[in-house]
Amino acid sequence: MFAPIPMHSPAIGAGLELGVGYIFKLNQDDKVSPPSAIGAGALFTSNGTRGGALGVKLYLKEDLYRVTLAGGRARVNYDFFGTGIIAGNEGRFIPLTSRGTAIFGEMLRRVKGKIYVGGRVQYRQLSIAIRPQDGDSEGRPGIDEVELDARTVALGLKTTRDTRNDTFYPTRGSLFEFTSDFFDQAWGSRFEYQVYKTDFNRYVTLAPRHVFAYRAMGCAANGRVPFYDLCLYGAMNDLRGYTAGRYQDRRMFATQAEYRVELPKRFGLVAFGGFGGVARHLNEFRMDQLLPAAGAGGRFRLTKESHVNFRVDFAVGRNGHTVTIGVGEAF
Question: How many domains does the chain have?
Answer without folding.
Answer: 1
